[in-house]
Amino acid sequence: MTSPGHRAREAVRYARAMTGQLFPALLRYWRQRRGLSQLELSLETDVSARHISYLESNRARPGEEMVLRLLSVLGAPLRAQNQALVAAGYEPRFAEPALAALAPEIDAAIAQMMRQHEPFPLVALSLDGTLVRSNEAATRVFSAFLAEPKAMPATPDMFSLLFDPRLLRPFVVDWETLARGMTFRLHRERLLTGDARLKDTLERVLAYPGVPKAWRQPDFSQDPQPLVRVELARDGLRVAFLVTVTVFSAPQQVTLDELRIESCFPLDDRTRDVCLQLARR
User: Fold this and answer.
1) Is residue 257 within 8 Å of 195, Cβ to Cβ?
2) Inter-residue contact 85 to 118 (CB < 8 Å)
3) Angle at the Cα of 164 from the Cα atoms of 240 and 234, rounded to 5 degrees
4) Are 99 and 133 in contact, with CB atoms under 8 Å apart?
5) What pLDDT is recorded for position 5?
6) Given the DSSP bridges, would you call strands 131-134 and 260-266 parallel, antiparallel or unpaired?
């Protein structure tokens, strides 16, 4: 019978072996995702191709800074860099505070953006499209176009709002064009980040009625549109917005790295007037 001490040592050895196998797999995954050979990655990072080969074959263990150098050059998001650090046996480097626990100056900046954008909608979204914060205009405007207000989920997300027939979808002008673009963006984000949450979101989106089966595969024949146009019409009420996306530059937190702020700008005087009228109610 083995002693408790022996079993503990075996467990540690097993954990180390699994850790050693995971980091090489992650490094190879991100390198291939970016379409780089070991030599090309070597030139980008100033690390010898031989050492990269050793890291991918688990014949060498990377230092903490080496992990960060390789993954940052490969464009891995901060969440993935944390995962690689843990896989290599280190602590995560980038914090993931709740949005409400962000530094006061960041929270104040987001709140100011939302106030200044009134009376036009502005929302803050997580990577998977969940609405984590919105200004009053967003609530006013979008509520006016909900087919079944009681169907609004407790934690709404932009994909549900635009794909669920009970929410905004019946009133979206040229819905198919907008939805196809959003699906393409979701495919692209999933491929770029490797985030499992986006796979779940994509499956949910594709399961909505009327979503073409062809959208299950990403279509790279068209370039992603830098700007999005959203037009809603219901019983004589009509608004049209240009939607821009803002991200934080060089964030050092996973929360900020994944945050998307979407601002709606009126495309015509009619939309501007509708937003002003809704604000006065």
Assistant:
1) no
2) no
3) 40
4) yes
5) 54
6) unpaired
Structure tokens at 220: 């790279």
Q: Enter the tokens of residue 49.
A: 């191709």
96-152 tens-digit pLDDT: 888 777 888 888 999 999 999 999 999 999 999 999 999 999 999 999 999 999 999
Cβ–Cβ under 8 Å, residues 84 and 16? no
The separation between CA 136 and the C-alpha centre of its own chain, rounded to angstroms, equals 23
Q: 71: burial class by Cβ within 10 Å (0-12, 13-18, 19+)?
A: buried
- CB atoms under 10 Å from CB of 90, counted, come to 18
Tally the C-alpha atoms within 13 A of residue 158's C-alpha that lie toward its C-beta.
26
- Contact between 19 and 88 under an 8 Å Cβ cutoff? The reply is yes
Tell me the Ramachandran region of residue 124: left when phi exceeds 0, alpha when psi lies from -120 to 50, beta otherwise. beta
**Four-CA torsion 134, 140, 141, 144, nearest 10 degrees:** 130
- Token pair for residue 272? 């501007």
- The torsion of the CA quartet 13, 19, 24, 30, rounded to 10 degrees, works out to 180
